[in-house]
Amino acid sequence: MNDTTYTDTELAELDRIARQIDIDAPAERVWELIARPGWYINDGAVDAEPDLRHEDDVTVVCHPSLGEFRFRTVELDKPRYAAFRWIGTPYRDDSAPSTLVEFWIDERDGGGVTLRVVESGFSTLADDPAAWLKEREGNDKGWLTELAAAKTFVETNPSATAGSR
Description:
By secondary structure, the protein is α+β, with helices and mostly antiparallel strands.
């Protein structure tokens, strides 16, 4: 059990996760991946042909071992910005509070892009900071894995994302 006490300022900073990675691929190719809701639900490698279904304005990602995850697309601004509301997981239903996942694609001088992700809203998941900090901890580590998976997928599968959207 963690008896750490955080200040309000520290809790506000912990309410979000921000990560980034450089990818040696054009923005359009990276866009084809990040515009797909829930591409980051995987076992450390992006699935070229995910099991998706659509229910009205919700995309459901069905993973064979992780379960079903539900996403609502908030905004798509091709090829620079995509935002999704992570509204349902195997541990939390659609009516529970959710986090916002935002992606930015920034072109780099000399070629390639920097892919940035911010997931925010953890403090809305539970009244007790210990509960939402535990969920945040898993996602904090997870984004490092998912961004590495995105880099590998986009750099080694140039045709896998073409025309997917």
